[in-house]
Amino acid sequence: MAAATNNTTIIRNGHVFDPLNEINGDIKDIFIKDGKVVSSLTSAEQRDATIIDATGKTVMPGGVDSHSHVAGAKVNAGRLMRPEDHYKSVRTRTALTHSGSGYTVPSVYKQGYDYAAMGYTTVFEAAMPPLEARHTHEEMRSTPILDMGAYLVLGNNWFVMRCLKEGDVEKAAAYVAWMMRTHKAYGIKCVNPAGVENWGWAKNVHGLDEPNIHFEVTSREIIHGLAEVNELLGLPMSLHLHTNNLGHPGNWEITRDSLAIPSDIKPSQKTQVEWAETKMNSRRKQSVYLAHAQFSAFGGSSWRDFQSGVAGLVDYVNKSDHVVIDNGAVPFGPATAMTGDGPAIHDLYMLSGQKWSNTDVEMECGSGVIPFVYLKSSPISSIQWAMGLELLLLINDPWKTIMTTDHPNGGVFTEYPQVMTWLMSKKARDDTAKECHKWAYDKSSLGGVDRQMSLYEMAILTRANPARTIGMAHRKGHLGIGADGDVTVYDIDPCKLNLNDTAALTARLARPDFTVKDGRIVARKGEIVAVPEGRRYYCRPYVDDALEKEMLSDVKDWFKYYTVGFANYPVPEKYLKNPVAIPVHNAEAEALARR
Amino acid sequence: MAEIILRCKGSIGIMVEAEVIRPDLFAGKKKEEIEELLVWQGPKPLPLSEFFDVDVSRAIPSDTRPEEANILIEGDVSRVKRIGQGMKDGRIEICGCAGMHLGAEMAGGSILVRGDAGSWAGMGMLGGMLHILGNGADHVGSAYRGSWRGMTGGEIQIGGSARSQLGGGLAGGRILVAGNVENFCGIRQSGGLILVKGSALRGVGTEMNGGTIAVCKAIKQFSPGFVETSREENVLLGEVQLEGWFGKFTGDYALGKNPKGRLYCQGGLEDAGNAQFR
Fold this sequence. Notes:
The complex is a heterodimer of chains A (595) and B (278). Chain A is of the alpha/beta class and 595 residues long. In chain A, strands 1, 2, 3, 4, 5, 19, 20, 21 and 22 form a nine-stranded mixed sheet that branches. In chain A, strand 13 (288-290), helix 11 and strand 14 form a beta-alpha-beta unit. In chain A, helix 6 (158-165) crosses helix 9 and helix 10 (252-260) runs parallel beside helix 11 (310-318). The mean pLDDT of chain A is 96. Chain B is elongated and about 60 Å long. Chain B is mainly beta and 278 residues long. In chain B, 50% of the residues are buried. Chain B has a 14-stranded mixed sheet with strand order 5-1-6-8-9-10-11-12-14-16-22-21-18-23. The interface between A and B is small, with 9 and 9 residues.
C-alpha cells in the first residue's frame, strides 16, 4: 500500500461482488476519487493514489445494516440497566480511538469502531420515538465513521391514529411529512400497531381487526393508512413493520395477513437525488419491509408445542412482490431485547423473571428493555436459531431478504460473520445443530435445506438489498459510477473457497483486510486506522401548503397534552453532524386538494 | 514452599488496582520480574515496586509450581484493590486489612486476611478458599453489579460480620459468617449455602429461587414472600451441623409460584408480622 497524499484510491485485481451491477466475482479494479466511485483515473491520479492490492481477495461494497438498535433512549436504557454487559467487554483507547465498553449494548464509539472493523459503513437505527429524536441524534452524532439515519416510530401516534380513524389520510400525510422534517427522520416505523396504545391500559391487541381503546382504530387501518401515507409522500423507504403478537407462538398467520394489507399499494419512491449508475433498477420495489421476521414467524400454539412457522410465511413471501423482510437471526449468546413493543418485553419478563423496563412515550409510542440469553441447551432458542436461517434460505429470491440479528434483540451485530457462515455452509449449520437442542432440526425444516448461499448472494443480503430496500441505493450498496466509495476487501479467495473450514471463513468475514469509507481506509484487519465523521440522512417530504397549515393549527392545539412546548419540539439541524437532507417531492402530494 | 514477601513501602494515596498480585502469576518469576509487574493508580500504570518491597529471600527459585507459590503481604493494603483476583492456585496471606475486590473471581488456591476486607471480596468466585478473620464489607461473594449470577463455587469464611448483599446471586459454594449481616443477604440466590451465626437486619433471601440460607439468631425484618413450612431440630446442611430448633421457610414467593429457596431461622421473629404462616 502506497502512502496516500491525495484523494484517490484504487482497489486492484479483486474479485468484485456487486449485485446491483450484476458483477459476480469478476476481477476488476475499483477507482475512487473524492469519495466517489469513478470509471477511471488519469495516470497522474493513479500514481498518487492509495493502492490496495486485492489480488485473490473478495471485494464488496461497504456493508449496509438496515435495521439495528444503536442510538437513542432505549439503547441507552439498556446500557444503564446492564453494567454486567460492560464489565468484560472493553476496548482501550488508542492514539486514534476512544475507549469503550459493552457487549450487547456497546457505547457509541465502540459501536462505530466494531461495525467498521467488520466491513460495515452504513447503519440505520430501527426505532426513533419522536420525543426521543433529540437523544437519538445526539448519539448518532457521536458515533464515529458510520453513515446513519433513523426511522420514526408512528404506528401508535395519537395524531396519526385520530386522522386514520377519521379516514383523513391526507392530513395524516401532512402530519408525517412535518414530523419527518421536524425530527430529521428517515423512514416510517410501525410497531405493534394499535397494540402499544392499548398497553397504556395494560392491554394489547391480538387481531388485525380489533379496534383499540379510545381511538377505536384497528391494526389493519394503521398499517394500510401508514403505507398509503408513505407512498403518497414518496419516501425513499417503504413502511417498516413490526407486526402484532410479536414473540407469541402461532403468530406467523397474523404476520402473513399483515403483509397482505399493503399489497394493493404501489411503491412510489420520489426522492430528488442524484442516482449513481447501476445495471439493475436500484429503486425499491416493495411497499412493506417486515422487520425481524424470525420473531413474527412462530408456529405452534404455546411454548410446549412451539415450532417454526417459517414455512407458511415464506410461502406467502415467495409469491408476493411487494414484500422485503429482514430475518432477525439468533446466533446464540447474550442479547438485550429492546423494542417499541412494551407488552412484548413484559411477556419476556414473565418468561424469564429478568430485570426489565418499560416506558410510555406520552402520545406517541412506548418501549421496553430486558436482558436475554439464547442458550444452545434451550429448545426454544434452538428453534429460533433455525428459523432465522430458514427465512433467508427458504425465500427463493434473495432480493426479498436482508440479513440482520435485529441487534441486540436476536444477538449482537458482531455475530454477523457467524450468521453469514451458516448461510454459506451446510456443514456449519449441521455442526451447530449437533451442539444445540435437537428441536432446532426436529421442529424446523432447516435440517433438510441444502442451499448454500454464494458470496454474490451474501452481497445482496448485506449490501445491495438493504440499501435498495431503504432507498439508499442511489449511493450505497453498490460500486457503480457515482456511488459512495465504501468498500470491503475480505481475505477470501472465491476460487479457493473452503466451506468446510467454517472457523476460518467466519474469522475472515469478521476481520476484513480493509474497510474503505468514502475512499479512505478506516480499518485494516480489524484495527481502526482512520476515524472520519459519518453523515446523517433524513427526509424532507412536503404536502400542499394549505393542507400543512390546517394540520399545523390542529397540532399546535394538540400540544396542550404534551409535556414539551411546540417551539421546543423540533430537533434543529445543528444536532446532526454532516446532515444530508433527502428532498422528497411528490407532485401529487404537494397538490393535494382538500376534499 | 516458595514464599514471596511484599512489604508496603508507605501509605497509599489514590487506590491501587493490583490484580497482578497472584501467586500463580508470581510463580517462577525472578525478583525483578515481580517488581516490574504493572499496577494501576488512577490513570497511570506503575511498577509494583513503586508500592512494595519485594523480598524473595525465602523463595526457592527452582520451584515454579503455582500450587506451591505463597505470597505474604505485610503492612496495610486496605487501599490496594483486586489482590488475588482470578487466581487459580497458590496462597496469599495478608497480615493487615485488604482493599476491595479481594479474591474476586478466584477459581482456586486460598487467601487468608488477618484484618478486614473491603467490599466485593470473593465476587463471582468459582472455587478456592477465602478466609477473612476480621469483618467483610458489602457485596461479599456476590455477583458483579447488574448480574444475577454470582459465586458458583468455593468457600468464604468471615470471622467477624459483613454488611449488605452478602452472597447476592449466589449459585454455588458456601459462605459462612460468624457474626451478623445487614441487608439483603442472599438476594437473588439460586444455589449454594449461606450460614450466618449471628442475626440479619432485613431482606434475607429476597427474590431467591434456590439454595439455602440459615440465620442462627434473629432476622429483624422478614421478607414478605416467605412461608414457614416446618420446624426442624439440629438441621444438617451438607457438612454443616446446626444446633437447636429452626423454623424452615420457602421462598421467595414474590418471584414465582414455586420457588425453591430454603431459609432457616432460629431466633424469635422480632417482626413476625411480616412473615406469612401457614
